[in-house]
């Protein structure tokens, strides 16, 4: 369970003026299901995901994940939380260009000192990429690359998957494939998708949260 209490984030960069990206957010999310966070560009969606992931510092309030307060994690706890509990999926995939499909997915396991060749091949098949195991990302379409990114996130069996505009670069059919895989995964994990696509949210979400100016 994720519990967000009175969460506020103010960016204080020297170059830009002070920006209140999140303004006193309160939210409780369950252990599984597919949650969509909808909002216009600049409404604070990515900021919220980054804070849940512990990638940035909160200004005030707290985020508790399975009873642990994220901002109180020690360095090693942060590392474990990010490398084993969370899977990330981004709009721009972020695959390593000189590693194959298989190697990109395997890397996520290497980081947490696990090996499971069979599971990697099974997952590649599950996301519909059988036969493409040894291709490089540049030899794949956008939708295929995103499915590699999803497999890379799922291979760790994370309890939480954070997806920032995962279909932002994909056409309608490909988006549907990606969302179906995430929907299936949401039976066993909490999937949070940040998006501005209301149509997709209406079709796939168990819950929709709308963010307006933080
Ligand atoms: P979204 O993902 O919904 O488009 P963001 O969370 O990226 O929105 O941004 C929310 C607000 O915070 C925006 O006004 C943006 O300009 C500002 N912002 C985001 N990141 C930074 C940063 N690193 N420094 C200063 N302001 C930022
Ligand atoms: Mg964003």
Write a structural description:
By secondary structure, the chain is an alpha/beta fold. Helix content is 35%, strand content 26%. It has seven helices and nine strands, in the order E-E-E-H-E-E-H-E-H-H-H-E-H-E-H-E. The protein has helices at residues 45-52, 75-85, 101-111, 117-126, 142-154, 172-185, 198-204; strands at residues 2-11, 19-29, 33-38, 60-65, 68-69, 86-90, 160-164, 190-195, 207-210. The chain has a five-stranded parallel beta sheet with strand order 6-7-8-3-9, with helices on both faces. Helix 3 (101-111) crosses helix 4. The mean pLDDT is 94. Bound molecules: adenosine-5'-diphosphate (ADP) and magnesium ion (MG). Residues 45-46, 164 line the site of magnesium ion.
Which keywords apply here?
4-stranded antiparallel beta sheet; globular; 7 helices; 5-stranded parallel beta sheet; 214 residues; binds adenosine-5'-diphosphate; binds magnesium ion; alpha/beta
């Amino acid at each position: 369970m994720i519990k967000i209490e009175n969460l506020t984030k103010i960016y204080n960069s020297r170059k830009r003026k002070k920006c209140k990206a999140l303004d006193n957010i309160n939210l409780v999310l369950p252990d599984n299901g597919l949650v969509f966070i909808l909002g216009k560009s600049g409404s604070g969606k990515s900021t919220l995901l980054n804070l849940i992931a512990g990638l940035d510092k909160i200004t005030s309030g707290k985020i508790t994940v399975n009873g642990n307060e994220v901002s109180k994690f020690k360095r090693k706890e942060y590392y474990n939380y990010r490398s084993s509990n969370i899977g990330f999926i981004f709009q721009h995939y972020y695959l390593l260009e000189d590693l194959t499909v298989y190697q990109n997915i395997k890397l996520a396991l290497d980081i947490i000192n696990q090996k499971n060749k069979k599971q990697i091949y099974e997952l590649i098949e599950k996301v519909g990429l059988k036969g493409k195991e040894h291709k490089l990302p540049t030899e794949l379409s956008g939708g295929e690359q995103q499915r590699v990114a999803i497999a890379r996130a799922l291979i760790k069996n994370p309890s939480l998957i954070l997806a920032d505009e995962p279909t932002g670069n994909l056409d309608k059919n490909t988006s549907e494939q990606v969302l179906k895989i995430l929907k299936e995964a949401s039976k066993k994990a909490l999937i949070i998708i940040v998006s501005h696509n209301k149509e997709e949210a209406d079709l796939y979400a168990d819950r929709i949260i709308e963010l307006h100016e933080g």
